[in-house]
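Page 37, continued from 36.
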């Protein structure tokens, strides 16, 4: 993978075998020689975030590892980054589609599937900040975009910026089946209240579970919560 440095780690997730994950070496890595990231609004400071393993993503993966695999259920991870939760679900036999807007996410996903001897997994380009064209399943770069409806939509640490136009809530609503459940792991960011209101305006009811954890041995402390949304009449 030219233009940046990577590392490889064994990642333990309770309930499943360890996963081998290739990630960026650190937050100083950057390579956008053709300007793909810049064209969709990813700055040099934001560029490496997709390629790091984050605590909220580990919590999401651990939660999915406990969920029964249901026949016919479709799962979508949005803003997947290195797609740890999607890889966990895929390994367990769930029908998972990973999605992100970063131009290198698909390459890292393919590599991590290979490292773990897993079959191909569905991946779609998903950028809720830019309205997708209704008359095509591809964006202007030819990438297949998120389509259809899903029974579980999940994501971690997605509320990192103010979303005055409610594009994330609209994207979730567009791709939710009538009985869908939505999981968002949030490390207590300040935009949560506004997002809850935006989801409520689209008919979702929310409950939350605290995910706080004290530091222990080689495990860092964590403060956050799992936000669970369902339609009011579901």
């Amino acid at each position: 993978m030219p233009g940046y440095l990577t590392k490889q780690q064994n990642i333990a997730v309770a309930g499943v075998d360890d996963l081998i994950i290739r990630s960026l070496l650190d937050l100083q890595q950057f390579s956008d020689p053709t300007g793909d990231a810049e064209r969709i609004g990813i700055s040099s400071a934001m560029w490496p975030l997709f390629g790091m393993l984050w605590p909220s993503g580990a919590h999401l993966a651990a939660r999915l590892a406990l969920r029964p695999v249901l026949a016919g259920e479709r799962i979508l991870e949005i803003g997947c980054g290195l797609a740890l939760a999607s890889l966990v679900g895929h390994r367990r036999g769930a029908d998972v589609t990973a999605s992100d807007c970063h131009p290198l996410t698909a390459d890292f996903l393919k590599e991590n599937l290979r490292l773990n001897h897993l079959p191909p997994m569905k991946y779609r380009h998903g950028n809720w900040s830019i309205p997708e064209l209704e008359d095509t399943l591809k964006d202007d770069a030819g990438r297949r975009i998120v389509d259809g409806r899903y029974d579980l939509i999940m994501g971690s640490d997605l509320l990192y910026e103010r979303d005055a136009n409610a594009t994330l809530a609209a994207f979730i609503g567009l791709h939710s089946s009538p009985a869908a459940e939505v999981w968002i792991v949030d490390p207590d960011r300040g935009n949560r209240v506004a997002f809850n209101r935006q989801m409520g305006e689209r008919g979702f009811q929310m409950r939350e579970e605290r995910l706080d954890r004290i530091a222990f041995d080689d495990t860092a402390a964590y403060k956050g919560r799992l936000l669970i949304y369902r339609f009011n009449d579901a």
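The longest strand covers residues 176-186. Flag for discussion at group meeting. The helical segments are 36-39, 55-66, 84-91, 105-115, 167-174, 192-201.
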